[in-house]
Design goal:
By secondary structure, this protein is α+β, with helices and mostly antiparallel strands. The protein has helices at 48-66, 86-96; strands spanning 4-6, 21-24, 27-33, 36-37, 42-43, 73-80, 103-108, 118-125. The longest helix is centred in the middle third of the chain and has 19 residues, at 48-66.
Length: 128
C-alpha cells in the first residue's frame, strides 16, 4: 500500500501529529477540521453557523488539494458540543453537498480542540 500526504495552505495547518489528509489509491482520509481560518489559525467567530461554514470551507480546500471536491465524500463524521445544533448543521451541509449525500454520523461530544463547537472529518473517494 502506498500512501501520500495531502496538504494545502488553503486549510488550517495541522496542530498535532497528523496530516490534513492521507491518500491511498483512490481513497482519501480527511482529518477533522475545526473552524480555524487558515491565514490566522484563529476561529472565524464564536457564532455556531459561521463556525460550521468555515469547517465546510476547510474540508472543501483539502478535498480540492486531493484532486476532488466535497461531493466526492462518501462518509462524513460530525462532532458537536451541542446536539441541539443538528438542524442548523443539516441546513448548512445542504449548501455544500449535492444529492446523493454522503453517509454520515453526527454525535455530541464533551469538548473539541481549542474549544470549537464543531469538527468534521470524513472519507473522499476519487474517480479512478
Amino acid at each position: 500500500m502506498t500512501k501520500s500526504v495531502v496538504h494545502t495552505d488553503k486549510a488550517p495547518a495541522a496542530i498535532g501529529t497528523y496530516n490534513q489528509a492521507i491518500k491511498t489509491g483512490t481513497t482519501v482520509y480527511l482529518s477533522g477540521q475545526i473552524p480555524l481560518v487558515p491565514e490566522t489559525m484563529e476561529f472565524i467567530s464564536e457564532d455556531f453557523a459561521e463556525q460550521a461554514h468555515q469547517v465546510f470551507k476547510n474540508l472543501a480546500a483539502v478535498c480540492e488539494a486531493a484532486g476532488g471536491d466535497l461531493n466526492d465524500m462518501v462518509k462524513v463524521n460530525i462532532f458537536l458540543i451541542d446536539l441541539g445544533q443538528f438542524a442548523t448543521v443539516n441546513e448548512i451541509m445542504a449548501q455544500y453537498f449535492n444529492t446523493p449525500y454522503p453517509a454520515r454520523a453526527a454525535v455530541q461530544v464533551a469538548a473539541l480542540p481549542k474549544g470549537a463547537q464543531i469538527e468534521i472529518d470524513g472519507v473522499l473517494e476519487l474517480a479512478e
